[in-house]
Amino acid sequence: MASVLKRSSLKLGMIPADGIGKEVLPAAQRVLEALGSAIPKVTFVPLLAGWEEFNARGKALPEETIRVLKEECDGAMFGSVSSPSHKVAGYSSPIVALRKHLDLYANVRPVSSVPGMPGPKVDMVIVRENTECLYIKKEEIHDAPGGGKVAYATRQITSYASERIGRMAFEIALRRAEERKGATEGIWAGKEGKVTIVHKSNVLSVTDGLFRESVRSVYDAEQRFKAVKVEEQLVDSMVYRMFREPEIFDVAVAPNLYGDIISDGAAALVGSLGLVPSINAGDNFVMGEPVHGSAPDIEGKNIANPIASIRSASLLLQSLGFPEAATKINAAVDAVLLEGKYRTPDIGGKSTTTEVTDAILKLL
Ligand code: GGG
């Protein structure tokens, strides 16, 4: 994961992009600002990207955004993007491109049940490979020999990318097991780590076969990982079991597309996509990002749930070497959820984005 060196000051790129990203990212910024001396002085650098930016100035991911992130920033936060569902000449998803430009090869998505809310007990982390699979976006369409059209998409799986995402998953499992040693509460209290490799190699025996074998090869090669249990699930049965008995999953590692899909499913288990954070992590850079999309239906209404973004800011701080500040944010969020007075409509409340953020700020 990104460097955990403590820094004396921080420069964070802020890329709200589209839709509710422009409402929830400022909420996360307010929380970071409220931490005061718990973290070094932060300079926030507003940066452009997104579908709206493409329509306004012709580039979904301006070169200046990439340059500033690479040359000037210690980390970043990304909001959400509204890529169209049809091909638009010259447009390509800026978040997919950013992950590649910055080599943010892991999308780490912790999903936990929410204090005070109904639902099953969940405490898992989905580790999604972030650079390849169908997201290399090599698609083509031709006239089909018998009439009509035929379209193809190339799916790329490399041993290199699969091994490094596997290593990240085993490291996270080791760290989680270490953190819960001696704990008495929680579904995983005191238990050893477990990594579930998600694939579909009974059908895609070459591509998913390589993913599965590469992740296993990392496990086989490193003695320290033997403290972690490893198992496998076909992606379809992963979805079934996740909904039937989510408590059995600790860390799940998956190729890009499966990881994207199962993490939205996992978000449904804990009440809302508006609660689930993520970080895009590489060896040299990290970018927080709520799992939810741009939600055009509620854009501009000040009712988007800011918690996924605020928790993503917490993950960012954790990765940058400020675990106490990260814990402080999480504790404030949990307390607000538990009290239940301020909740946005996605989790059954009537509060605004601003009210929920204010309630969290009061506890910092
Ligand atoms: N914050 C996650 C997000 O924006 N999800 C929507 C997404 O990634 N869509 C792909 C795209 O619009 O390019």
Helix/strand layout:
Elements: E1 9-17, H1 21-34, E2 41-46, H2 51-57, H3 63-72, E3 75-80, H4 94-101, E4 106-112, E5 123-129, E6 133-143, E7 149-156, H5 159-179, E8 194-199, H6 207-221, E9 229-234, H7 235-244, E10 251-254, H8 256-269, E11 279-281, E12 286-288, H9 307-320, H10 323-339, H11 353-362
Parallel strand pairs: 1-2, 1-3, 3-12, 5-10, 8-9, 8-10
Antiparallel strand pairs: 4-5, 4-11, 6-7, 11-12
Helix pairs in contact: 1-9, 1-11, 5-6, 7-8, 9-10, 10-11
Structure description:
The protein is of the alpha/beta class and 364 residues long. The protein folds into two domains: 1-104 and 282-364, Isopropylmalate Dehydrogenase (3-Layer(aba) Sandwich), CATH 3.40.718.10; 110-275, Isopropylmalate Dehydrogenase (3-Layer(aba) Sandwich). The chain is built from eleven helices and twelve strands. The strands form two sheets. It has a ten-stranded mixed sheet with strand order 2-1-3-12-11-4-5-10-8-9, with helices on both faces. Strands 6-7 form a two-stranded antiparallel ribbon. Helix 1 packs parallel to helix 11 (353-362). The protein is globular. The structure holds glycylglycylglycine (GGG). Glycylglycylglycine is lined by residues 80-83, 93, 95-96, 289-290, 292-294.
What labels would you give this structure?
single chain, 364 residues, Isopropylmalate Dehydrogenase, 10-stranded mixed β-sheet, two-stranded antiparallel sheet, 12 strands, 38% helix, homoisocitrate dehydrogenase activity, isocitrate dehydrogenase (NAD+) activity
**Which ranges are low-confidence, i.e. pLDDT below 50, for 5 or more consecutive residues?**
none
Number of E-state strands: 12
Q: Mean pLDDT across all residues, rounded?
A: 96
CATH architect. name of the largest domain: 3-Layer(aba) Sandwich
Radius of gyration: 20 Å
**Percentage of helical residues?**
25-40%
Could you name the CATH topology of the largest domain?
A: Isopropylmalate Dehydrogenase
Class of secondary structure makeup:
alpha/beta
What is the succession of H and E elements? EHEHHEHEEEEHEHEHEHEEHHH
Count of domains: 2
GO cellular component, one term: mitochondrion
Keywords: Magnesium
Pfam families: Iso_dh
InterPro entries: IsoCit/isopropylmalate_DH_CS, IsoPropMal-DH-like_dom
